[in-house]
């Protein structure tokens, strides 16, 4: 079975981002190995967009990818920003499962954490815990969790586009998608677009 994964995580936007952990071929290969025998098609937010000045369309592209994905895999190996939280919340609205790669003793997980005047054991950041379908240690485990999602049957049908995302997804679908070669290629691979 072909499964689409939206690669959520930091994007290297310039020289200041060179030291950040981002999705690379290595992470994609680990997910692919873990998901075997399923084939994985990756939807990547860092593909070039035809009109970078169209910020609504650019946001719409990310949300469209989250919507059509079989699952969102979040790279939470280190501190992440606003965009990842929005992607996780949108995934919840669509009914897209969220798998979070948060290694033990990282920003979002700890065996023991002093938190709000208490000691918490097996801490997972509250936003991650609330929005994640699974929290795993590494990308191979994320692939295995992805395979596990479909092991018992098909994924549930997607929910309708929430009102707060309708304008952005509409902008992308109506004015950007036709010129988005990487996304059109991925959709053809997933047999979601005829021709």
Structure description:
- By secondary structure, this protein is an alpha/beta fold.
- It has one domain.
- Helix content is 41%, strand content 19%.
- It is built from seven helices and seven strands.
- The chain has a five-stranded parallel β-sheet, sandwiched between helices. A two-stranded antiparallel ribbon has the order 5-6.
- The radius of gyration is 17 Å and the shape is globular.
Short description:
The protein has 195 residues and is α/β, with parallel strands linked by helices. The chain has one domain. 41% of the residues lie in helices and 19% in strands.
What is this structure's SSE topology?
Blueprint: E1 2-8, H1 25-35, E2 39-43, H2 55-68, E3 71-75, H3 82-94, E4 98-101, E5 109-115, E6 118-124, H4 126-131, E7 134-136, H5 139-151, H6 163-175, H7 181-189
Parallel strand pairs: 1-2, 1-3, 3-4, 4-7
Antiparallel strand pairs: 5-6
Helix pairs in contact: 1-5, 2-3, 2-6
Protein name: Nucleoside 2-deoxyribosyltransferase
Organism: Sphaerisporangium rufum
Between the first and last Cα atoms, what is the distance in angstroms?
20 Å
**Relative strand content:** 15-25%
Number of helices: 7
Q: Which structural class is indicated by helix and strand composition?
A: alpha/beta
| Order of secondary-structure elements | EHEHEHEEEHEHHH
Q: Can you summarize the main beta sheet? A: 5 strands, parallel
Shape: globular
How many domains would you count in the coordinates?
A: 1
